[in-house]
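Possible regression after last week's pipeline update?

I re-ran a chain I had predicted before the update to compare outputs. Posting the input and the new output here so someone can diff against the archived version. Not blocking, just want to make sure nothing changed silently.
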Amino acid sequence: MVTISRRGGVRVGLAVAVAVAGARVASRPTLVPWPARVRPAFIAVTTLVSATVAYVAAGSLGIRGGGLPSLGQRARRAVVASAAGAGLLGTYRIAKHQAGARLEGAGREIEPGFSIPPTLHTVSGGPGSHVDFATVGREGARFVGSTVPADVVEQVTGSMPRMEAIRVFVGVDSAATAEERVALALEELRRTAAYDRSVLLIGSPAGSGYANPTPVDVVEILTLGDCASVAVGYGLLPSFLSLDRVGLAGHTQSLLLEAIATDLIGRAHRPRLVLYGESLGARVQQRALPAGTVDLDRLGVHAALWVGTPGGSESVDFHAAVAAESITVDRPDQVPATLPVPRPRVWFLEHDGDPVVRFEPTVMYRRPFWLGVPPRGRNVPQGMVWAPGITWAQVLVDTLFATHIVPGNFESRGHDYRADLGGIVPAAFGFAIDSATTQRLESALRQLEVTRAQRVDEA
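New output (post-update):
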């Protein structure tokens, strides 16, 4: 018969063994670099949690003095655990509310470098606009205040712009409801004669209202200004604090897509409709297209580019819904020299080593395909291994450091796709350009970002 002391020794030994194994996994490389102090802290926490879980699990199996816990003991433990969980949840909600209030205030504040209302009638907030410039917020002001200068267009293409590009932005404060915001966007599109342009880009902003200007820059340059872009905001908080607004965001996108499609019925000239969404914005725009290619057909969409879509079952299902006419690439080098006929209408740009793309609940208990048998995808370390729970936590931490932005220093790594857009946007939207033009375009995009950053930093 096993004595109580031997049972306790076995229990402690098991906890130590599991802790050592957990520490080894936690010390392995992950998808993106972490700040110097984070890795040691993560290893320490993983070691402690692994030991605790193993010790408690061993106790529940009877490897302890006194045999299995009584019904009363289990009930008391359940009450304590529930109370602790409720306390943590309450603390999280309070912290989120306080942080959200500060961040929303910052999102409404227009920076000095963008504080002067636009002078172009072709952008929201400019002369004749139905949108009050004061309501577009920080991200909206950056968006409408950053149309590509004529000299940059000429530098890349060798030609001067044919016309001023159109940029429509409606902020979350520009109207009270999603329906009113979309109606305002439609008024702006009609006011600026956006439907007479050759291309209309419908963007899906992130939770803060951020609409990546780089793909819009590409379209403005390559069309010589003969284009329009539109984005409608649904919040002011960063994406990780906007998950509870995805339903509203998807509804907003659906309203916008349907309204534009209705406006175009019966027109002799129809612009090419192209869609763009990045990160949470990609998820939101996809949610507005539940039938996949059927919805794209019905709405008359020419092409869609979705970048860094967050992982999970919803992403898997949507990929399947458009599989018949989609292509997924990690970088521009993977675009085939000769595209299939008909050419893919749906483009997914997803880095093999993007933790935002790779993070999903199933990593908690099942080895993901991207950590399977080599060769692995780009920037997925050969030394990274899978372990239940630990790998999930590693990828979660990876998401916190997935984007490291230095203006003008484009990197094709993690959740940073700036270095890829100069090559992927023309391919996805059907612009045929040669390698020399691509190089000039890449250089121009970097300089445009540096200029925007300098305006952001103006006192």
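Follow-up from reviewer: compared with the archived run. The radius of gyration is 26 Å. Marking as no regression found.
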